[in-house]
Each structure stands twice: as structure tokens, then as C-alpha cells.
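re the bet — no i am not wrong, look at it urself. input seq straight from the record:
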Amino acid sequence: MNDTYDFSLSQRELLSILFKEWRWLLGVFLGIFALVLGGSYLMPPYYEANTRLLVKSGREFQIHADSGIMVPPSVTKMEIVNSEIEILTSRDLLEMVINQIGLNKLYPNIALKLPSDTSAIDAAIEEFSGNLKVTPVIQSQIIEASYLNQDRKIAIEAMTILIRRYQEKHASLFAEHKSEFLEQETKSYEERLAATDKKLSELRQSQSIFDAVTQRARLIQDRSIVAQALSDLQAKEVDTQGRIAYFSKQLETLPHLVEGGSSDGAAGENAKVKIVDLQLQLQTLRQRYTTDVQPIQNIEQQIMSLQRLAKKSGAQKVWTQRNPVYDDTIIRHNAAQADTVSFHQQIMIRTNQLSKIDAELNSIEDAARQLDTLQREHDMLNELGHTYRKQYEEA
């Protein structure tokens, strides 16, 4: 025979017990609530800094074939994400973040409790690793990272430095061996480009060249004007010298003095007056013609006939006077000489102006050739520098 005991309580009995012991139960509940509430106030607060990283399959995950053609990566997206998580949570990366922020600033309690540098940094790395949470987002190429710290600013600063250091470490790990060479070549072309820019600026300032095409066109126009003026002056000088030669030849044949009058008879007197008139006409014709034309020969014959007539009439008293034709020829001769001197001076001025313009043109031509050479070198260096910079950034 088995004896069984039934310990189940009826609803009435349970309510009876609660009614009798409600004070004790309420005290226990309030005590636990107060303990939890007080603990939450006494515990230090923690701030969480969150970020998300998108992992893209770049050139670093592509394989370079011997032919130089890139082939698709041989790893899966999950493997790539896991590799990046390992880099992000690596010990050396966390140590760099702690050293940059400062152990005393990041974990002052650890610095006070553990004076040894080695043990303190190990404890700080372990603490940082415990506060850092890095997880992949399922079915994506996104990494979620969060970091806890009692100081809000330090939490944000630590997360910012961690991401920056991670990017640098990623670049250094996946960089190709030729990146150093590309960096050196890029710096070399940039330095040469800066030197070329300096030479271009110095050449423009020293030669006062700011627009070679416009300056050359202006000088060519000025030279054309000066050359035309010089040609006109030289033509006038040649004409004046011809007039001087002609007047000099006339002065050699003209008498200084001519008969002014006499006491001869009417026929002789009239003959002499006609001779003077004919001599004036002869002088005018000789100024107009350079050869002995028929009118000149006719007047000379008339003068000779009148002179014979005057001799036959006889002369008792004869007086002389200045030859007006001779005096007028001297005046014309002196004026032509004065014009020659003036033209010569103007020709010298124009010649100097032309020489100066030619020198400026030659200088601009030489400078323009140097500028063209430097500009071509500048463009080539700029293009090469841009190409190497692009390759370096890709590397």
C-alpha cells in the first residue's frame, strides 16, 4: 500500500497565504527594486560609437596575369569581408590606436594600476578588444563596428582613428611593390613641373612677355610705319641732292654781275634790255630742261644777235649790277642744302627706331621660342605627372 501526499494548494488557500504575508512579500519586492535601481545609478555610463564599412572588390583583390590583364578574384565575398575584419581587429592596429590617443587618456585606471608599460599596454589592448565589436552584416559586404567607452568624445575619437588606421593598414598590406617607384616618379615629375613653372614665370618677367602674339603683331605694325616713313625721307633726300647738284652746275655758268645800263643810243639800249629779258627766259628754261632743247637754242641765238647789235651801236658809259638769276639760284641752292640736313637727321632718327624695333622683335622671337619649348615641356611633365599620380593612387 503506497501512501501519497497531495501538496497542491487550492486557489483559496493561495490567496489566504498572500493575504496573510502581503507585507513581507511587498517588502522583498521593494527591496529588490531599490537594489536594482541604486545599482543602475551607481554604475558608470558607457557610450557607444558605431560605424559601417562597405567592402568593395577593388584592384587589390584582382590577380595580375603575366600578360598584364586583370582576372576576377578567386576568393568569395565572405572571405574578403572576414579578411577585412581580421585586419580591423588585429593587435598591432589596436595598439597604434591606443598609442595615438594615449593610454592615460583612454584607460586612466589601467595606467594607475599597472605601472609597467608592457603589462599596461597589454591590458589596454585586451580592454579595447573587449569594448570593440566588429561583425559582418549577413548577405552583404558591410561590416558593422561599435566601440564602448565611458567618455563620449573618446569613444568617437577612438572609432575615427581606428577607421583611419585601418584604411592605411589596408593600403599598405595590399599595395603593389611598384608603389614606391611610382611615388618617387610622381614626386620627380611634380618637382620638375614646379621648376618649369618657375622658369616660365621668370622668363615672362625678365623679357616683359605676357602675350607674345599680340606684342609681335604690334611691333610688326610699328616697324611697317617707321619703314614707310624712312623710305619717304630717303626719297626726298635723293630728290633734294639732285636739286643741289643742278643748282651747283647753274651757279658755275651764271655770272655774278650783269650790265645795269649805259649811255648808248636807243637801239643799243633796247638791245641790252631785250638781252636781259632773254637771259631771264633762258635761265627759266634751263631750270625746266636739263638738255639744250630747241627753245633754248633759239633764245641763245637771239641773245648773240642782240649782243652784236649792241656792239655796233657802241657804248660810252656802261655800269653793272647783281645778277638776280644768280642770287635766286643761290637762295634755292641754300634751301636745298638745309632740307638735306633736316632729311638726314630725320633719317638717322627713323633708322635708330627701326633698329630698336628689330632688336625687340628678335628678342621676342627668341623668348617666344624659349616659351614654346618650356610650355611643351610643361605640358609633357603635367601629363606624365598626372599619369603616374593616377597609377600611384591605384597602386
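see?? The two ends are 90 Å apart (CA to CA). told u. also The longest strand covers residues 47-54. so pay up
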